[in-house]
Amino acid sequence: MGKIKLGDVFEINTPKGSKEQYSVFFPLSAANHRGIVKKVGYYPVNEFVKPKYMRTKHNVRGEFLGWHIVDTDTWHMQLVKTLTSEQKMFSPWGCWNDTLLIENLVNGWSLEKWE
């Protein structure tokens, strides 16, 4: 196993495939080392830019209070009660593990349905 480079393409086994629709943080190096993912190729991503903003639900004691809009450069969070159509397309902030990633892919999780 060599060093992971931007542009390396990995696959993860799921009962159902899914096209890429959003960005998530994922512990790729650990998953690769444990054999959870498999490197299958490389695609040059010269123009790749990480998302500027991402979003996460803000719950306190089980009560939904709104959404945190996170600036991925500064980690500054802004709380909003409702999302604009642009904010609804922001990818989820946080780190998913392989179980959550597979579950969400199999269940057709999408930004549009995430409320």
Strand count, sense and barrel status of the largest sheet are: 4 strands, mixed
Give the termini distance in whole angstroms: 39 Å
Q: Secondary-structure element order, as H and E?
A: EHEEEEEH
Number of domains: 1
- For the biggest β-sheet, the strand order reads 5-4-3-6
Total strands = 6
Structural class: alpha+beta
Low-confidence sequence ranges: none
Our count of helices gives 2
- Average residue pLDDT: 91
Radius of gyration in whole Å, from Cα? 16 Å
Shape category: globular
List the quaternary state of the chains. Answer: single chain
Instruction: Estimate the helix proportion, in percent.
Output: 10-25%
Task: Offer a concise description of the structure.
The protein is an alpha+beta fold and 115 residues long. Helix content is 13%, strand content 30%.
Outline the structure in words.
This protein is α+β, with helices and mostly antiparallel strands and 115 residues long. The protein has one domain. The protein is 13% helix and 30% strand. The strands form two sheets. It has a four-stranded mixed β-sheet with strand order 5-4-3-6, with no helix packed on it. It has a two-stranded antiparallel sheet with strand order 1-2. The N and C termini lie far apart (39 Å). The model has no long low-confidence stretch (mean pLDDT 91).
From the structure above, extract its key features.
alpha+beta; two-stranded antiparallel ribbon; 4-stranded mixed β-sheet; 115 residues
